[in-house]
Amino acid sequence: MIDHLGLQCADAAAAAAFYERVFAPCGVRELMRYDTPHGPVIGLAGPDGMPQLWTSPLEEPGNRPVHLALTAPSRNAVDAVFAAAREAGAEILHEPREWPEYHPGYYGVFFRDLDGNNVEAVHHGFPEPA
């Protein structure tokens, strides 16, 4: 379980806006923001209202991709994240599908965010009735 995750970003405000837009189907929104001499530090929260994803300015230049998986409440939300990521111009690594090698009912989409991180929306469950 992730308590929170901090990402160093080339543009912390743009990164936070990207996550808000792409993960809106999962209820992600900006909750906190404070300014530093190098730019804003922004806390994003899901439906529970806890800031668990933070974007902040780079401490120093460099490539620091990470893998970030966010829980989606349904397969439809994974599909909506995929559509929003594609609309936002994100590089799609893997379109939404089941990943039985992880476990039965694992349904996810993978894409790159604005800073090259490998981001995933995942729903743990079985196919929803039509």
TrEMBL record:
- Where the record annotates domain VOC, the positions are 1-124
Q: Which Gene3D superfamilies match?
A: 2,3-Dihydroxybiphenyl 1,2-Dioxygenase, domain 1 (3.10.180.10)
Superkingdom classification of source: Bacteria
The record's PROSITE patterns line, in alphabetical order, gives:
VOC
Please give the name of this protein: VOC family protein
- Pfam families according to UniProt: Glyoxalase
Query: Which InterPro entries does this UniProt record tie to the protein?
Result: Glyas_Bleomycin-R_OHBP_Dase, Glyas_Fos-R_dOase_dom, VOC_core
